[in-house]
Specification:
The chain has a single domain, classed as Transposase IS200-like (Alpha-Beta Plaits, 2-Layer Sandwich). It contains five helices and four strands. It is an alpha+beta fold. Helices cover 34% and strands 14% of the residues. The chain has a four-stranded antiparallel sheet, covered by helices on one side.
């Protein structure tokens, strides 16, 4: 088995991609309210600041700022995934089991990137917000309802037509 080395910075900011095993699924947007509730519940138990998020049909991206002195993002993501699965089961969604007896909906690993500086942070926020356009789900960022983009607009941090020209500097390819 591959030995993954993850960067762990107490109080750091991290970009994550969590992906369903079935990349053809739309489970995450069908149950976006359950996803949001799972995030809210994890934040209550293990504090963090959710800087940006986008929910796509088969994966989600989120940017998380951990509290000072805390570097345990893995526990938060594990709890989030587990709470979401529990909510899906309670909603009657059929959830199969994997070889180890766990829920068979998530890919076992996740992508993580430690944010290095303000420019890196801004680039990843832009990436998150532009991702539905990149995947061809909408033509305008503002048309995707499952995104923190709308909070950024309400707070006056972005214009409602942000990203409309397509000239957004975005990192990654998830």
């Amino acid at each position: 088995m591959v030995n993954y080395r993850r960067v762990r910075l107490a109080g750091g900011s991290y970009f994550f991609t969590l992906t369903l095993k079935d990349r053809r699924s739309d489970l995450l947007i069908r149950h976006a309210a359950l996803l949001r509730e799972a995030l809210r519940r994890v934040k209550q138990g293990k504090s963090f600041e959710l800087l940006a998020v986008v929910i796509l049909p088969d994966h989600l991206h989120l940017l998380m700022q951990l509290p000072e002195g805390d570097s345990n993002y893995s526990a938060r993501l594990r709890d989030f995934k587990a709470l979401f699965v529990k909510s899906l089961r309670a909603a009657g969604e059929p959830i199969g089991l994997d070889a180890r007896g766990g829920a068979d909906i998530w890919q076992s690993r996740f992508w993580e990137h430690a944010i290095r500086d303000e420019r890196d942070l801004a680039t990843h926020i832009d990436y998150i917000h532009f991702n539905p356009v990149k995947h061809g789900l909408v033509e305008r960022v503002a048309d995707w309802p499952y995104s923190s983009f709308h909070r950024f607009v309400r707070q006056g941090l972005l214009r409602p037509d942000w990203g409309a020209g397509g000239g957004v500097d975005v990192a990654g390819d998830g």
